[in-house]
């Protein structure tokens, strides 16, 4: 019993130490928002000598003449449209792969899975050339069009695996009652796919909200920037960089993602545990 208690204490201490290591960067960022900018990089102490809210005041005053609410609105629009597009396009595509029988289904599914192995950076130049010739650069279209075309192979695969766990007897019962393929999908399969759809929505929202590379490539007008891209406006290589406001805006940018995750956490766990990913 004494040995078990010692092992338990050591294990819990190890977990607490690991938790401290993982959470330290977050705590440091939050604490830095209450420090003067000069102390953030020059002082290694976690807590400031005199806390100040001046960093948040400068954030709400705006940057380069643009109100911070504009950046939040841009990120919200991009994230919500990405969620709608990804869910609305991935679910029918997944149903087709999981339930329908058509020529070339297996090769097409294999090609879709193979796209997961293709680095996104390989496609940047040809995609940029296409959107530039269509005069769509500096708009949100390049960032959203793929979401509405079932181009997110990971989420299609996720929903396919979930649909494959549903008994086909449900489809047959609906067809006996007179439902066609669309009726089976809309009234039977789609309601049962709620855990997988919510999981898709959560990951899409978080990934879109935190996306920096895509907006950096396609957007050039500051008032169209989402939050990740707007953060770089506080850093000026030719003048003084406002690291205090940068940290404050970073914390504010994390709040919607954390709240979104906490609100849908139960559905996320349910979706991941029921999709199977069994092949």
Write up this protein:
It contains 15 helices and no strands. Residues 275-279 have low confidence and may be disordered. The chain is mainly alpha-helical and 279 residues long. Helices cover 70% and strands 0% of the residues. The protein is globular, with a radius of gyration of 24 Å.
Key phrases:
15 helices, 279 residues, disordered C terminus, single chain
Record the SSE blueprint.
Elements: H1 2-32, H2 37-42, H3 54-60, H4 68-99, H5 105-114, H6 120-133, H7 141-144, H8 153-163, H9 168-176, H10 181-192, H11 194-209, H12 213-218, H13 227-230, H14 243-263, H15 265-275
Helix pairs in contact: 3-14, 4-8, 4-11, 9-10, 11-15
Mean pLDDT across every amino acid position: 86
Structural class comes to mainly alpha
Strand content: under 5%
* Terminus-to-terminus distance: 44 Å
The SSE order reads HHHHHHHHHHHHHHH
Summarize the structure.
The protein is 70% helix and 0% strand. It is mainly alpha-helical and 279 residues long.
